[in-house]
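Summary for the lay section of the report: proteins are chains of building blocks that fold into shapes. Here we show the chain for LysR family transcriptional regulator and then a coded description of the shape we predicted for it.
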Amino acid sequence: MTKVPDFEGLAMFAKVAEERSYAAAARAMGVSVATVSRGVSRLEDRLGARLFNRTSRRLALTDVGAALAARASQLYAEAEAVEDAARELSSRPRGTIRLAVPMSFGVHWVAPLLPAFLRAYPEITIDLHLSDATVDLIGEGFDAALRIAVLTDSSLVARQLCPIARHIVAAPAYIARYGRPRHPGELAAHHCLGYAYRARQDVWRLINTNGQEVAVAPTGPLRVTNGEALLPTVLDGLAIAELPEFLAAEYLADGRLVELLDGWSMPLGGLYLVTPTTRARPAKVEALADFFIKHMARPAWRQPR
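The coded shape description reads as follows.
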């Protein structure tokens, strides 16, 4: 015999004891009379004792049934209370959200949005994990993540919030000193900075308007695990870097950086909200998803400053 208590049988017994009728208990529980009868019989077999004396006109508790009825009813009520509490928690935005976000993007573009979110949802708290390393949402217990990538993990559910372009850039001082590359093949002769967490190795893949693709492995004096750490070296005119638009936009706008390789571009990436599943997703995660969809569809780095 299994050591797991027969909670279903106890619940059905409790309801029959309360209603004094199998049919009434079945109606109250939304199941068939046969299901209730089987549940009670299974419990009697497990306990080795009859719980009801049955006649054609009435149903009465045995001594064993009378001794068990109050505690079974208490278990039933407690189980209903647990379900009600869980249902309220899942339908009402409250609780802690464990959210993983890339470091620079999180500091510059997510953190400034959080006050508005926390004001809108005062019963939600956020545990914000900032790292450019890709976390295991399920294994590490995260509720959601923002990722800037082309996603391949089919066990996760991803919603694209907005596209994100990537740019090959250099400072005017670098161009004045080393010249301006016009073709990706010329980058091998230049100082190009690397990024450790790039998917599918640290390779720049560029495509021109004719569909020609060239892959370049950057080689230079610096490799980092955070894209923002590339900026001082690039702005100082020492190297070329590939930067996402949310990092490069302000420097391209004011001329401190210049985009290279006219007619060539990198495949368009995206900002994704990733969750373990959409099935029975808690209300707190739904609230966060709706908030990001609203505020990231037209990202601030594309707006006039």
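Put simply, here is one thing we learned. The chain has a mean pLDDT of 88.
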